[in-house]
Design goal:
Elements lengths: L1 E6 L1 E3 L5 E8 L8 E6 L6 E6 L6 E3 L7 E6 L4 E6 L8 E7 L5 H4 L6 H4 L2 E2 L3 E5 L2
Parallel strand pairs: 2-11
Antiparallel strand pairs: 1-3, 3-8, 4-5, 4-9, 5-6, 7-8, 9-10, 9-11
């Protein structure tokens, strides 16, 4: 199993970035997927999740209305479109395979990250700075 991320970088407040995560080594369309971020000195924070067909999407309150998670199962790729970025969005962002299910985040029944997710991308830095 591999999750290879791209995108990210440095952007001014109010700017936009798109992250991508290409999956291989498993049947991508069989798994819910999530984006998780970790800011310096803080623990992992779930950002967004999508179910297998892409029709059900869930977001943390902190990014609702600004970020959009999507997937293209034909391309084995997960995306995170980030708009109206804020200083507090600065973090290392990870895509993660989410076998416990996207709905667990919506229903506040998600497990700790070490159990919720079984594979992670390599991480990509997003820095929001003026």
């Amino acid at each position: 199993v591999q999750l290879v991320q791209s995108g990210g970088g440095m952007v001014q407040p109010g700017g936009s970035l798109r992250l991508s995560c290409v999956a291989s080594g498993f049947t991508f369309s069989d798994y819910d997927m999530s984006w998780v971020r970790q800011a310096p000195g803080k623990g992992p924070e779930w950002v967004a999740a999508v179910n297998t067909n892409g029709f059900s999407r869930y977001y943390a309150d902190s990014v609702q209305g600004r970020f959009t998670i999507s997937r293209d199962n034909a391309k084995n790729t997960l995306y995170l479109q980030m708009n109206n970025l804020k200083f507090e969005d600065t973090a290392l962002y990870y895509c993660a395979r989410d076998p416990r299910g996207a709905l667990t985040h919506h229903s506040n029944t998600a497990y700790p990250p070490g159990y919720q997710y079984d594979y992670w991308g390599q991480g990509t830095q997003v820095t929001v700075s003026s």
